[in-house]
Amino acid sequence: MVKETMYRLLFELTKNSKRSDREISKTLHVSQPTITRMRKQLEKTGFIQEYTVIPDLSKINLEIVALTFMNVRREHETYAPCLKWVEENPNVLVAAGGDGLNRNCMMVSVHENYTHFSEFMAEFRSKWGAHVSDIGSFLVSVKGTLPKRFSFKSLERIKR
User: Fold this and answer.
1) With the CA atoms of 153, 154, 158 and 160 taken in that order, what torsion angle do they form, in degrees rounded to the nearest 10?
2) Which of 39, 6, 43 is nearest to 21 (CA)?
3) Which residues are CB-contacts of 45 (< 8 A; sequence separation ≥ 6)?
4) At 49, phi and psi to the nearest 5?
5) pLDDT, tens digit, 9 for 90 and up, residues 8-32
6) Is the pTM of this model over 0.85?
7) Does the CA dihedral 112-113-116-122 come out positive or negative?
8) How does residue 129 score in pLDDT terms, banded at 50, 70 and 90?
């Protein structure tokens, strides 16, 4: 019962993390102190990593989301500085190793326009081109209507 209520709380927070514990307690039919205690437990155990806003990128002058796939040689002496550059670059939203499309890494970045994206990739290639191969990007314009915008709201409907 407690585990299921914690999941329900987590999913209520993914829908709208601004809601008060009192409001959520009414939805989940448990006391407000229980919700507060459970929220703190979810934070402490890492189920909640952060509370954030998902802005409309076009309204803050970011037009392009780039999904870039590549192969990276992961020798320590070359890989660590590349990771640091990616971690510190404000345009990079997420980067991770993986497997697919005959590539071993991916990066998601945001850009004002195509020129900015081109400059970003030129800098990336000039710094890391000797350690990175098979680079390919898929560019998405966030202007206009998207079939489904980025959100975690539907997580609770996933079978687990």
Assistant:
1) 10
2) 39
3) none
4) -90, -35
5) 999 999 999 999 999 999 999 999 9
6) no
7) positive
8) confident
